[in-house]
Amino acid sequence: MNKILLLLLVLVAISFGQIEYDPTQIKGADACENCHKSAVDHWKTTSHYNVFSGNEEQVAMHRRPESKEILKKMGMKSAKRGLCTNCHFTLQQQEGKKRAKAISGPSCESCHGTASNWIEFHGVFGNDANGTKATRETETAEHKLNRLKKADDAGMIRTHDIYNIVENCFECHTVPNEELVNVGGHKAGSDIDFQNWLNKEIKHNFLYSDGASNREAPRDFEIKTRNEKSKLIGLLVDLEYSLRGFATSTEEGDYSNSMKNRIESVISKLNELKTAHNDSKIISSALNSVNEVQIELTNASSLNTIADKVKSIAQNYSQN
Ligand code: HEC
Ligand code: HEC
Ligand code: HEC
Ligand code: HEC
């Protein structure tokens, strides 16, 4: 085959693959272990880990008969390359290697951002006012501010901005791929309630106690307000991603129906939450935006506009 044509085909394949991060920038969970042992140990008990490694209760994704069915219907050969790896695995491309390889299930960097540009300095406290090596307690305010700003600029997703973390969950858990669902027969999204799911399985807030216990909120956050905030942001992001997901539908089918159901279900959860919530104004403004549009296949561009509005409501609330 003509080389240029081959290159084009590869490029098309990659853009369909939609990997949203650069696999050369992935360090892998092993790189976090020295300093975050409790978080890594805990991760190894979750289905995010077992989906790749497998255990007695959970067969690794690429070994499941259901996966072989899906691959067949999609005309694909491997679950460890291409589309499936976007959500099920973490891809890393080591220096000098020609291609990226699946190294684990969704891992630290799937939620906190690829680490090679921030791993070295995000937890280093610099020198204190006397010029000696600082600890967390003696780090100067200026150093802390710079350190965190530098980490954010380098793409680290930290705990202060819930929106940025939640967004990752819904990118995978709404399964926003019509062909995969309608043709492949893949499950159409998870019934995910962010705040519950956070405390159910993936919770790993060990900094507060230096690894001694797993707290219900990260360090520096009060548990009750954190939970309230996570709950509302989770619903808003669910709404945003369901609207975007529905907007990509091209036909009536499992995919469009399930996205539509998602939208309706989030709307009713938001209505329920509104009556008792301290931030009912925020909820109302999101609900008013959705009321402006019909959830119809022909309305893609208005649906995306509404999704953008919901996004900025959620982001403002998150950063507040
Ligand atoms: C050399 C030690 C070290 C390594 C390696 C390390 N960290 Fe950290 N990390 C720290 C320290 C120390 C803190 C606490 C910083 C503070 O007190 O502000 C921290 C904080 C964090 C936080 C919380 C930040 C916030 O503001 O919410 C996250 C998330 C995090 N690290 C993720 C990771 C991930 C993911 C990896 C691996 C890719 C990693 N770290 C590797 C030392 C390290
Ligand atoms: C857009 C993200 C995404 C992509 C791409 C994706 N999956 Fe999934 N998959 C998920 C999520 C999220 C779940 C968990 C659903 C749940 O149970 O909540 C899942 C669950 C599954 C399950 C278990 C289903 C069940 O009923 O419990 C199988 C099998 C599976 N995926 C196979 C595949 C295969 C094979 C591919 C590639 C052809 C693939 N997936 C691509 C996100 C994705
Ligand atoms: C890179 C994609 C990806 C991201 C990001 C992601 N997940 Fe998942 N998650 C999956 C897949 C795939 C599975 C299914 C594992 C399996 O089939 O065994 C899963 C499984 C789970 C499960 C267990 C499912 C069950 O039925 O009990 C929970 C809980 C969960 N995820 C919560 C979250 C939360 C909360 C976030 C965000 C903070 C998140 N996930 C981010 C891909 C992802
Ligand atoms: C599925 C997404 C997801 C994965 C995977 C994940 N994290 Fe987190 N991480 C979060 C979320 C969400 C929070 C904030 C939790 C909350 O609000 O209760 C967090 C919080 C943290 C914190 C701050 C906790 C505190 O006590 O203040 C650290 C440190 C951290 N993660 C490190 C890691 C490391 C290391 C890994 C890999 C072993 C990892 N995370 C894997 C989503 C994830």
Q: Estimate the mean pLDDT confidence.
A: 92
Number of helices: 14
Radius of gyration: 21 Å
Q: What is the terminal separation in angstroms?
A: 56 Å
Q: List the ions, cofactors and other small molecules found in this model.
A: heme C
Number of domains: 3
Structural class: mainly alpha
Q: Per the principal axes of the C-alpha atoms, what is the gross shape?
A: globular
Helical amount: 40-55%
State the low-pLDDT regions, or none.
5-17
Biggest sheet: strand arrangement: 1-2
| Beta-strand segment tally | 2
Query: Order of SSEs, N→C?
Result: HHHHHEEHHHHHHHHH
Largest sheet: 2 strands, antiparallel
Strand content: under 5%
Short description:
This protein has 320 residues and is mainly alpha-helical. Helices cover 53% and strands 2% of the residues.
Primary descriptors:
3 domains; mainly alpha; 53% helix; binds heme C; single chain
